[in-house]
Amino acid sequence: MTTATAHTDSAAPLLELSGVHTHIAAYHILHGVDLTVPRGEVTMLLGRNGAGKTTTLRTVMGLWRASQGTVKFAGQDITRLATPQIAGFGIAYVPETMGIFGDLTVRENMVLAARSARTAAQIDAERLAWIFRLFPAVEKFWNHPAGKLSGGQKQMLAVARAIVEPRELLIVDEPSKGLAPAIINNMIDAFDQLKKRGVTILLVEQNINFAKRLGDNVAVMDNGVVVHAGRMQALAQDEALQRSLLGLAL
C-alpha cells in the first residue's frame, strides 16, 4: 500500500501551471499558460524573444502575481504565496541577470545563499566539496570579489549559490547566454549531475544545441501560451516542427 502511494506521488508532476494569466501594469503577458514539469527530469522552455518565458518563471516564483489560473508545486497551490515562502519549499531561481553581489567575495555570496549557515565553515563541507568539483572556478576565486569574475564564472557562481542547500526544483533563465563553448559543456555536465542527484530542472534557453543535449522534455511558448509540449528528442528529430515552432532547425 505504501509503495503504491509513493509511486503515485512520484508519478505526479513536481510543478504544474494551469491556465495562468499574468498582467504587468497595463500589459497582458501570459494568456493561459499550461505547463507540466515532471519530477527528476530536465524540462526546456523554448520560444522566440518576447514569447513569455521569463514572465512564466517569475510568475512561478511569485515575483509577478498570476491574475488568473493556478501554480502547483508538489500538489500544493503556491499561486498566491510570497516569494520567500515559495523558495522555502525547496525551489531555487537563477535569473537571467544572475543576481550575484559584485562587491562581495565569492565566499560571501555563497554564505548569503546558505540560509542555514552564518559563516563559510558552517556550510555543509561535503556539499561544498561537490560544488567545487562541479565549478572549480568557485573554489579558485573563493576570496575574490564576485564582480571581477568573467561572465562564465559569474554564471557558475549563480548556479552554485542556488544549489548550496538541497533543492527539489532548480529554475534557471538562459544559463548558456554569452558563454564560451567550453563553459557551456561544463554547465551541461553540472546540470546532468544535479539531475542524477534527483533535482528537477526547468531551464529557459535560446541555445538550441544546449537544449537538445540536456533536455528530457520541452515546452515551446509563443505569444504568452505554450504551443507545443513533448519529449525533447522528438522535437530534435523533426525539422519541420522546429521551423514552424521556432523559425529554425536544430
TrEMBL record:
Q: Kindly name one Pfam family recorded for this protein.
A: ABC_tran
- Listed GO MF terms: ATP binding; ATP hydrolysis activity; branched-chain amino acid transmembrane transporter activity
Q: Which family does it belong to?
A: Belongs to the ABC transporter superfamily.
> Among its keywords, does the record have Membrane?
yes
Q: Which GO BP terms, alphabetically?
A: L-amino acid transport
**Record flagged with keyword Cell division:** no
- What region holds the ABC transporter domain? 15-248
**Name of this chain's protein:** ABC transporter ATP-binding protein
